[in-house]
Amino acid sequence: KQEVTQIPAALSVPEGENLVLNCSFTDSAIYNLQWFRQDPGKGLTSLLLIQSSQREQTSGRLNASLDKSSGRSTLYIAASQPGDSATYLCAVPYNYGQNFVFGPGTRLSVLP
Amino acid sequence: DAGVTQSPTHLIKTRGQQVTLRCSPKSGHDTVSWYQQALGQGPQFIFQYYEEEERQRGNFPDRFSGHQFPNYSSELNVNALLLGDSALYLCASSLSGSNYGYTFGSGTRLTVV
């Protein structure tokens, strides 16, 4: 059974800091991994999708890496801003299908 | 271009009652998936509907059932509500065969009292 964990559970940083969020998964036979953002009481927005053949994916100030063999992914946020405050979740495919197993998320607060 | 719409946004039910939640997928999408998100946790996959049939199911009891209509919209039904069913229920739509472009609605907050 695939399990996804994320550390830290919560993080509070001053504006401008670079930060790293971590994700681990138990079954390395995944074909992709996605990072999502969730604002309080809202749905999820996809940030980055990394295919299993890739090691990194970048979008603006966000960079995600994937190491399948070790069952790990990291999300790097550069020059954090108060607008980045949200919960960040990583997700891998559920039973090799189209749906997801999510981690519990990292709740990020960026202080002005 | 409307995204995924869910109704109602909030709902309060009494233990033992039944509830129906509704979802309209993003234009151009034909597949709908439902998730349950308890407070402080990540979403858990309930089931997915495509071509009006349940195609994949997560580890949820039979009290959770669904339906997809010919216009691709979907309903989630929960019978015999328990206090533990209180959660944010998220609907996501996609195009069959891909989890790229997977789009979530804002959810229905269900409170069971």
Characterise this structure:
The complex is a heterodimer of chains A (112) and B (113). Chain A is an all-beta fold and 112 residues long. In chain A, 0% of the residues lie in helices and 57% in strands. Chain A has strands at residues 4-7, 10-14, 19-25, 32-38, 44-51, 56-59, 62-67, 72-77, 86-93, 100-102, 106-111. In chain A, strands 2, 4, 5, 9, 10 and 11 form a 6-stranded mixed sheet that branches. A 5-stranded antiparallel sheet of chain A has the order 1-3-8-7-6, with no helix packed on it. In chain A, a hairpin with a 5-residue loop joins strand 4 and strand 5 (44-51). Chain A is globular. Chain B has 113 residues and is an all-beta fold. Chain B contains no helices and 11 strands. In chain B, strands 2, 4, 5, 6, 9, 10 and 11 form a 7-stranded mixed sheet that branches. In chain B, a hairpin with a 2-residue loop joins strand 5 (44-50) and strand 6 (53-57). Chain B starts with a strand and ends with a strand. The model of chain B has no long low-confidence stretch (mean pLDDT 94). Chain A binds chain B through residues 4, 32, 34, 41-46, 49, 89, 91, 93-95, 97-105, and chain B through 4, 31, 33, 35, 40-45, 48, 56, 58, 88, 90, 92, 94, 96-102, 104-107, 109.
